């Protein structure tokens, strides 16, 4: 989606992975709309909303447009926010490459969304909604990555969730890395766990979320999805980057 920008205000390019799931695509669009509304309403009174910055979505895989294509269409400065829960190959390689290929000379790239305590609080809420109760075992399910920095981010995020629910969690991966989620579920049952729940460290519905429902757990939490805390997190990433761009122009 695109919204009207104030003159000179940096555009926001929200970069997601991409999915063939219609629900996943709709979720990213809804997230973009919510972020645009959050930024437009920031500081506005009840009777008058401030204009939104231009907001575009881009994808690094499966779908288009790519970040470089979006950036080439923008005239003024831009802030790229990677909507990823861990900083792996897409964040460290794909996004910088896309920015460089765009030829755009006024782009700030923010840190990825996760790990962050706000995401852990959402996961804890989703777990409870799925039926988890204290005493039930928990599998922290992440997509996985071959990048050691991404795996470290996942470990940090799992620690944040464990702190939120006051119970240990075991990490399992959906696509890349070991152990896989079904293996962790089976191991917990073999060790005596009567009920096992999966906490989804995924942003949107898609193939990976569906795989969690086939892992043999007693319940699977919904993905993080569109939540006010996620919206505020992305908006804050944008605001900090706008300040950095302003300071860079002054130098």
UniProtKB/TrEMBL annotation:
Keyword tags: Lyase, Metal-binding
Which Pfam family, giving just one, matches this sequence?
A: CbiX
Query: Which ranges form a coiled coil?
Result: none
Q: Please name the Gene3D superfamilies in this protein's record.
A: 3.40.50.1400
Q: Which InterPro entries match?
A: CbiX-like, Sirohydro_Cobaltochel/CbiX
CDD domains listed in its UniProt record: CbiX_SirB_C, CbiX_SirB_N
Regions crossing the membrane:
none
Return the protein name. Sirohydrochlorin chelatase
